[in-house]
């Protein structure tokens, strides 16, 4: 059986790779490729368009369809400006906790996958185990689709997908989708004492931001029966806004970024219909004063939600191993919905609490990591006949 010490060593190595989403993840991918290949996996890299990042898809067992995908992301969120008490890229154990960026979200699950690869390879598998390591999940689940396409195109469609986001080893059957947009407003510069001679991009952007606020305020109230998470409704937030050069100059440009997190069954294009109508109306008004004025909208990401399903073999497997039979959902987005979109049943279950994710002094309880070793040993025993 794979032991805690071996798995902890794998986690230490993974934390040591600075894989903040704006940086390359190739050093981590190189190491993971080496470890998985040595364990007998057949590894395929799927690079991004820049060649600076890659997904890694590893297969263990027979080259047939079915089997289980163990999926997780390699990137982490920034530590800039956060008051860390330890080096965020060095695993530190203290008071029953493992500190480091990504301990919770979600390199502990990756460590389990890599440490258990030799045991998977030694098992008499009737169906394969896939280990899917993706890039750029933290900025909109951007990396996983290319890997999902590669898996499906190979004729190796899995019977189920287990995504190891932090859930305290509770089984999650639903998550929200996420659609993010960048809005660039172009106006006309003028002296602020003569506002009728120009168009303030900031003022126009604020009008649109108010429209989004009104839409957000009007979204349906939570329905715990349909989506048992908090908040259990569709939400809209504006995360960035930039513009202007001086207090006495009408801003020529203003840019803001917002996201919509829809519960299953709701679509961002329907939720945002009043916003797009406001964009068209404001553009026409702006151009009456400045023909060069414009509002450009660029969609940054669009990851679908994970919907509950009465027949989900991956969820049944996770429940059988963990013993958890409660109905749960999460407000964050993950690649589980992307797998479900191509016909692969998916479930979310992994070590740690999402409340620790993205925080300074991010940590994972040692007990959660040790529980992971137990879960993966039980999973390995079941894989010989599953899928």
Terminal CA distance: 22 Å
What does the main sheet amount to? Answer: 6 strands, mixed
Spatial strand arrangement across the major sheet: 1-2-6-3-7-14
How much strand content do the residues show? 15-25%
What is the SS-derived class?
alpha/beta
Stretches where pLDDT is under 50 for at least 5 consecutive residues are none
Number of helical stretches of at least 4 residues: 10
Determine the mean pLDDT: 96
Percent helix among the residues? Answer: 25-40%
- Total E-strand runs: 15
CA radius of gyration: 23 Å
Order of helices and strands: HHEEEEEHEHEEEHEEHHEHEHEEH
Give the overall silhouette: elongated
What does this structure look like?
By secondary structure, the chain is of the alpha/beta class. It has ten helices and 15 strands. It has helices spanning 4-15, 26-38, 103-122, 144-153, 201-217, 268-271, 273-289, 313-322, 336-341, 366-383, and strands at residues 42-47, 54-60, 68-73, 92-94, 97-99, 129-134, 160-163, 174-175, 178-186, 235-243, 253-261, 294-303, 329-330, 346-348, 363-365. The longest helix has 20 residues, at 103-122.
How are the elements arranged and paired?
Elements lengths: L3 H12 L10 H13 L3 E6 L6 E7 L7 E6 L18 E3 L2 E3 L3 H20 L6 E6 L9 H10 L6 E4 L10 E2 L2 E9 L14 H17 L17 E9 L9 E9 L6 H4 L1 H17 L4 E10 L9 H10 L6 E2 L5 H6 L4 E3 L14 E3 H18 L4
Parallel strand pairs: 3-6, 3-7, 7-14, 8-13
Antiparallel strand pairs: 1-2, 2-6, 4-5, 5-15, 9-11, 9-12, 10-11
Helix pairs in contact: 1-3, 3-10, 5-7
């Amino acid at each position: 059986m794979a032991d805690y010490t071996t798995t902890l060593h794998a986690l230490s190595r993974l934390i040591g790779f600075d894989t903040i989403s704006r940086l390359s993840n190739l050093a981590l991918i190189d190491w993971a490729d080496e470890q998985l290949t040595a364990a007998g996996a057949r590894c395929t890299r799927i690079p991004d368009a820049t060649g600076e990042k890659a997904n890694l898809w590893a297969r263990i067992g027979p080259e047939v369809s079915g089997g289980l995908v163990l999926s997780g992301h390699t990137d982490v969120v920034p530590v800039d400006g956060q008051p860390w008490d330890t080096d965020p890229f060095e695993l530190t154990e203290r008071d029953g906790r493992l500190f480091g960026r990504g301990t919770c979200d979600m390199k502990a699950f990756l460590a389990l996958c890599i440490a258990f690869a030799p045991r998977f390879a030694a098992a008499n598998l009737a169906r394969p185990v896939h280990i899917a390591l993706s890039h750029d999940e933290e900025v909109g689940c951007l990396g996983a689709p290319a890997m999902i396409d590669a898996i499906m195109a190979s004729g190796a469609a899995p019977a189920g997908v287990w995504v190891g986001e932090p859930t305290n080893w509770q089984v999650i059957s639903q998550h929200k989708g996420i659609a993010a947009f960048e809005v660039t407003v172009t106006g006309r510069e003028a002296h602020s004492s003569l506002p009728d001679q120009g168009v303030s991009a900031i003022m126009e952007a604020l009008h649109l931001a108010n429209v989004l606020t009104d839409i957000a305020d009007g979204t349906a109230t939570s329905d715990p029966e349909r989506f048992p998470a908090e908040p259990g409704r569709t939400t809209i937030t504006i995360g960035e806004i930039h513009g202007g050069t001086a207090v006495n100059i009408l801003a020529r440009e203003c840019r803001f970024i917002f996201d919509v997190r829809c519960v299953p069954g709701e679509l961002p294009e329907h939720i945002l219909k009043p916003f797009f109508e406001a964009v068209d109306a404001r553009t026409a008004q702006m151009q009456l004063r400045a023909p060069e004025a414009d509002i450009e909208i660029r969609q940054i990401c669009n990851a679908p939600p994970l919907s509950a399903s009465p027949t989900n073999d991956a969820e049944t497997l996770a429940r059988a191993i963990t013993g958890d039979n409660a109905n749960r959902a999460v407000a964050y987005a993950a690649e589980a919905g992307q797998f479900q979109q191509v016909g692969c049943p998916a479930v979310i279950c992994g070590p740690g609490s999402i409340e620790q994710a993205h925080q300074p002094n991010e940590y994972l309880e040692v007990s959660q990591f040790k529980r992971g070793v137990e879960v993966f040993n039980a999973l390995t025993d079941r894989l010989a006949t599953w899928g």
